[in-house]
Amino acid sequence: MFERFTKDARAVVEGAVGHAEREGASRVEETHVLLSLLDREGSRGSFALASLGLPPGGRVGLVRDLDETRRRGGLSRADADALSGLGIDLSEIVSRVEETHGEGALAAAGRGSLFGGRSGRRMFSRGAKDLLTGTLRVAVARGERHIGDEHLLLALTTRRGVPSEILADHGVTHASLARVLYGDSRGGEPGTATEAKAG
Q1: What is the pLDDT of residues 12-43, one digit of tens each?
Q2: Cα(18)–Cα(11) distance, integer angstroms
Q3: Contact, 174 vs 168, CB < 8 A?
Q4: Could you state, in order of their start, the residue ranges of all structural domains in the chain?
Q5: Which is higher by pLDDT, 5 or 94?
Q6: Cβ proximity of 22 and 151 under 8 Å
Q7: Is 54 left (phi over 0), alpha (psi -120 to 50) or beta?
Q8: Distance CA 181, CA 175 (A)
Q9: Nearest to residue 122, comparing CAs of 36, 17, 11, 30?
Q10: Which domain of life is it from (predicted)?
Q11: At the top level of CATH, which class does the domain 2-71+107-198 belong to?
Q12: How far is residue 170's CA from residue 27's CA, in Å, rounded to a whole number?
């Protein structure tokens, strides 16, 4: 499959590995792929993000939201809302954990340093592997032979989880990306949760 990746798509995957390494994470996660997509300039994916109001340098809010999610131990805003409905104040729990264990204690849960992660090559999490497989499906559904960074971005928006939720909060949904990239709402994964959320 990787032989079909364009130079830009390969750079995103390599960048995701770099983000995981700098963070000390034991595995490459979908959030690392998103951060790497946000780093890109001059590609179809970066053009689409800029067209939807996220130009390079203007993505601070999205990165801040990702950092806040990490601080909550990876729980999304939807998770926090669900817990709130049960009478559980997630921000209070985070505050108490950080009082005892230091700021960012929950964010460190996935880092290799806490679990004796080995140095060297980072493995991809199940979610990140599924994302890469989804990228191939998106490209094939569009009738395209090569996989670009725009396909990685489209595939990311079709998946449930923190990256797609945060992108949607900033106006980047599967349907909006398909409109910007192709002039339609046919993004290769019709009927996804993100499209339903956008419509």
Answers
A1: 999 999 999 998 888 999 999 999 999 999 99
A2: 10
A3: no
A4: 2-71+107-198
A5: 5
A6: no
A7: beta
A8: 10
A9: 17
A10: Bacteria
A11: mainly alpha
A12: 26
